[in-house]
Write a structure and sequence with these properties.
The chain is built from 11 helices and 12 strands. It has 497 residues and is of the alpha/beta class. The protein has one domain: 3-Layer(aba) Sandwich (Aminopeptidase). It has a 10-stranded mixed sheet with strand order 1-11-10-12-9-5-8-4-2-3, with helices on both faces. Strands 6-7 form a two-stranded antiparallel ribbon. A hairpin with a 5-residue loop joins strand 6 and strand 7. The two termini are 31 Å apart.
């Protein structure tokens, strides 16, 4: 997930550590759907079904673990832009897609949806030059962090207020939004999720610093694309399921040594889930009525480069794309909850998502609005319904070298993958394509908000329930971030009217 703010390190055990108003939560239209209570079947039937499910889940978890451990290994060099490790990851993904029998010749006869950008290296970070990359609509350089610029795109803000939240980014040099949290005035004073006007203005007022570029490098970026064709009169309509496979690469440590940023949760987890979804759908006995396109995006950490390139140069017409499902940071599931963003982009898609989550006994923290924090945003900007899944877990390793494979909760990824596959089937088999509804892009999704919503859900779940164990989790001790809860039957908080 692209960094829109440095994670605030706060005492998450107390709600008082977050300076967030109740009005802000109501304005966001937050839905919290808790896992439903299970109704027991006949004992013998239930035992047989459970045994088959356990065996299937165990094999899936092993595949997922293998993928995460490979992508988050030293050999992949942190999957940074321009590294051999990122190319190795792309080759691995293309092979896996081909082994599943998927069509991998959509992009000029091959699996790679390629483009080139120029990066300017200043010694410890890269800056991407957008000139000529996106549609030429006049150039305007803006510094990331300024109002109108956002943190993901170089955008001309002269068209109208908040234009960067609604329009395509224009050409111009991109400034790397990542900064040193210890010296960045935007995040220095943050001790939690701050949502008051004064702090918001100060956050935007400080400009991200640029360092003098010392070397210009041309870098080829590869999205990896695979297709599962549909059958019938709606086979031309497309559902995209995506996850970015790049990360931050290697950076200099305090002693000048190269430190690998492994990116196990961000986003080897989503990439592994994507492969598992592809496996599930490719093993179906009958074809779906609509086409499924699997895309492993690259360049996400540098500003959604891969997904922006996809929507600007689509290998399949965007007019035929009816929905986009994004998987980013799905390796830290806690207490059977998943955050889903973008449900306001289509009431029909939101209903399908809630129904599918209920069937999988997964609680949703549903945020109707969306944010340019991951690869769903460019599709939303083209009026395509989106949902973005992200697990609610410990964020202290976010964009740190400590985001390693041993901290991933693999049963959670397997559950997210199964839920995503079933959601894709539901959308593919729907009589009508989900209708797009514009909600607007939110400028920033702070990590503190994710933790806040997670604590709210856990507090709600703990009230008045007689259930002592979350469903479908046999080995509680294996979960590295476990917090004891007692989920109650599904319920939903309606948004403020």
């Amino acid at each position: 997930m692209i960094n829109q703010s440095t994670p605030a390190r706060a005492n998450l055990g107390a709600f008082g550590s977050f300076r967030i108003s109740a009005l802000a939560i109501l304005a966001a239209g937050l839905f919290v759907a808790l896992p439903p209570r299970v109704v027991a079947d006949e004992p013998a039937v239930q035992d047989d079904v459970a045994a088959v499910q356990a065996e299937t889940a165990s094999a899936a978890e092993a595949r997922i673990r293998q993928t995460v451990e490979l992508l988050a290994s030293d050999a992949m060099e942190g999957r940074g832009l321009g590294t051999k490790g990122l190319d190795r990851a792309a080759d691995y993904l293309s092979r896996r897609f081909a082994e599943l029998g998927l069509k991998t010749d959509l992009c000029g006869g091959g699996p790679f949806h390629e483009f080139t950008v120029q990066t300017q290296k200043d010694g410890d970070r890269h800056r991407v030059d957008w000139s000529g990359f996106l549609a030429d609509a006049g150039q305007k350089q803006q510094t990331a962090g300024q109002p109108g610029a956002g943190l993901d795109t170089a955008t001309d803000a002269r068209t109208k207020p908040n234009a960067s939240q609604h329009v395509e980014p224009k050409s111009g040099p991109r400034v790397d939004p990542r900064t040193d949290s210890k010296t960045d005035p935007r995040t220095e004073s943050m001790d939690g999720f701050t949502n008051d006007r004064k702090s918001d203005e100060s956050w935007h007022a400080e400009k991200t610093r640029e360092k003098t570029a010392t070397k210009t490098i041309k870098t080829t970026i590869k999205n990896v694309v695979a297709v599962l064709e549909g059958e019938g009169p709606l086979a031309h309509e497309t559902i995209i399921i995506g996850a970015h496979y790049d990360h931050l690469g290697q950076r200099r440590g305090e002693n000048g040594e190269e430190v690998v940023y492994y990116g196990a949760n961000d986003n080897a987890s989503g990439t592994a889930a994507l492969l598992e979804v592809a496996r599930i759908l490719s093993r179906r006995e009958s074809k779906l009525p609509r086409r499924i396109v699997f895309v492993a995006f690259s360049g996400e950490e540098q500003g959604l480069l891969g997904s922006l390139h996809y929507v600007n140069h689509p290998p399949i017409p965007l007019g035929d794309t009816i929905a986009m499902i994004n998987l980013d940071m799905v390796g830290r599931m806690e207490d059977d909850y998943v955050m889903v963003m973008g449900t306001g982009s289509s009431p029909a898609l939101a209903q399908m998502t809630r129904q599918t989550a209920d069937e999988h006994e997964i609680g949703l923290l549903s945020i109707p609005s969306t944010s340019p924090c991951s690869d769903h945003a460019p599709f939303y900007s083209r009026r395509i319904p989106v949902v973005f899944f992200c697990t609610i877990g410990d964020m202290r390793d976010y964009h740190q070298p400590t985001d390693t494979a041993d901290k991933i909760y693999y049963p959670g990824i397997e559950r997210v993958a199964r839920m995503t596959a079933d959601l894709a089937v539901t959308v593919a088999e729907a009589e009508e394509r989900p209708e797009f509804t514009e909600r607007g892009l939110q400028g920033a999704l702070l990590r503190g908000a994710i933790r806040f919503f997670g604590n709210v859900a856990r507090q709600m779940a703990a009230e008045g329930s007689d259930r002592t164990q979350p469903p479908n989790r046999a080995d509680e001790d294996s979960h590295p971030n476990e917090l004891p809860v007692k989920p109650e039957p599904a319920r939903e908080l309606e948004p403020a009217r």
